[in-house]
Design brief:
Elements (H helix, E strand, L loop, with lengths): L14 H33 L9 H8 L3 H43 L13 H4 L20 H13 L10 H13 L7 E5 L8 H6 L4 E6 L2 H13 L4 E5 L12 E7 L7 H14 E11 L8 H7 L1 H5 L5 H5 L3 H7 L8 E6 L6 H9 L16 E8 L5
Parallel strand pairs: 1-2, 1-4, 2-3, 4-5
Antiparallel strand pairs: 5-7, 6-7
Helix pairs in contact: 1-3, 2-10, 3-5, 3-8, 5-8
The chain binds S-adenosylmethionine.
């Protein structure tokens, strides 16, 4: 059922494990598909039938709190989320010693080691929360040289997203890198930084699309970075992985053409978002591009969509999601020192699911954000915003 993984860190599931993962993926598809659609119809039939339109997402949430179908949907979705990890961790656990050895061997063979720090303070926003219910969050190490968190992430994404993330779960990276190649050809990036890279699945496409570029990727988690380095090396992608907090980038001023991140900002407390954006501006060269793949802001969505997307903040151990999406993204960028008139946002179709002409046509279509933006369903489009550092201060 799942798209083939084309790197050497791929694990073979037993038939039982495969069956369990297929079941959980189907359950998630059902909850986020049919059940979500029924819940939406029910909301408008029961709570807005007299034109009593809710002004915002929290009002929709208040109205739905005691609704039996919403409670059923939420408990199904919460349990399906836990089952994603339960369907994958036994496979990783069973193979862990071999995976640790194999990843070390791949890194040694390609001379591609992540730069890890002996005394590194993992931020509380990662270490004190099992982020989106992932046991041990991103950073926990179970053995010397551990890569378990990376293997769990790699194998859980297709279960979580029921194959909506493309080959090697890289569609977001391909979509964003090809957006830059096609829409901003003058940028011709020589140095690219990916922040909060996790296993580098959306970093590798940047190296594939811009093979001449020096690509760097940072994260706070050592087991993720060890896994990411081996994974990228086995895909012939020469990328420098470093353990670093994005709020304090250990790079000189004016040193990157692009600072990219995907699904990253919403996992930071607001003060860290602001610190990261200021750091991104500092390390970008004049004219350089900040590109941030995320979900759209609440203000740009209809009240029901706000409510629907805020679910993760209330029920999925993602406490910073709603505070982030409540921000005005242009204001976040301008406060970090980017010019207001360089702010842009778009919703792109998925690059690896179509040919380039259709992708370009899709990019040139409407720019509004609706229930297809960032939502795992047919017609899915990836949202991003960004800014340019001024050429002259
Ligand atoms: C949702 S994941 C990002 C997913 C990844 N970019 C992708 O496209 O698959 C968030 C990542 O950010 C990392 N992270 C969290 N806080 C960070 C920080 N302050 N600096 C750098 N990385 C951080 C986490 O360890 C985690 O790997």
């Amino acid at each position: 059922m799942f798209k083939k993984i084309s790197h050497e860190m791929a694990l073979d599931a037993t038939r039982d494990e495969q069956a369990r993962q297929n079941f959980v993926a189907s359950l998630r598809a059902h909850v986020l598909g049919d059940m979500a659609e029924t819940m939406r119809e029910r909301y408008f039939d029961h709570y807005e039938q007299d034109g009593d339109a809710a002004p915002d997402g929290p009002t929709v949430h208040d109205r739905m709190q005691d609704d039996a179908y919403f409670r059923f949907y939420s408990s199904m979705r919460y349990n399906a989320q836990e089952m994603v990890f339960r369907s994958v961790t036994p496979m990783v656990d069973r193979n862990l010693d071999a995976l640790i050895d194999q990843s070390a061997a791949i890194r040694a063979a390609h001379d591609q080691q992540p730069e890890l720090r002996a005394e590194f303070a993992v931020p509380d926003s990662v270490s004190k929360i099992d982020v989106h219910l992932a046991p041990g969050s991103y950073h926990t190490e179970y053995a010397p040289g551990d890569v378990a968190a990376g293997a769990v992430y790699d194998n859980s994404i297709n279960v979580f997203a029921f194959n909506q993330m493309g080959e090697d779960i890289s569609d977001i990276g391909h979509t964003m890198a090809n957006y830059v190649r096609l829409k901003l050809p003058e940028l011709s990036p020589q140095r690219i930084l990916d922040c909060g890279c996790t296993i580098g699945s959306n970093t590798v496409p940047w190296k594939k699309v811009f093979p001449q570029a020096d690509v760097h990727a940072i994260d706070v988690s050592a087991p993720l970075l060890r896994y990411a380095a081996a994974r990228a090396a086995s895909m012939d992608a020469d990328i420098s992985f470093r353990q670093m907090n994005a709020t304090e980038l250990d790079y000189p001023d004016n040193s990157f053409d692009i600072v990219f991140s995907s699904m990253f900002l919403h996992e930071l407390p607001l003060k860290d978002i602001r610190a990261y954006l200021a750091e991104a501006r500092r390390v970008l060269r004049p004219g350089g591009l900040l590109l941030t793949m995320e979900l759209p802001s609440n203000a740009s969505m209809a009240p029901y969509e706000q409510f629907y997307l805020d679910w993760d903040c209330y029920y999925n151990k993602e406490p910073f999601y709603k505070p982030f999406r409540d921000q005005d993204y242009r204001e976040l960028c301008t406060t970090a020192g980017f010019p207001a008139d360089s702010f842009f946002e778009f919703a792109a179709p998925r690059y690896t699911y179509m040919d380039e002409a259709d992708f370009l046509a899709g990019l040139n279509e409407q720019n509004g954000f609706d229930d297809h933006t960032g939502t795992l369903r047919d017609g899915l489009r990836w949202y991003a915003f960004g800014s340019r550092k001024p050429i002259q201060e």
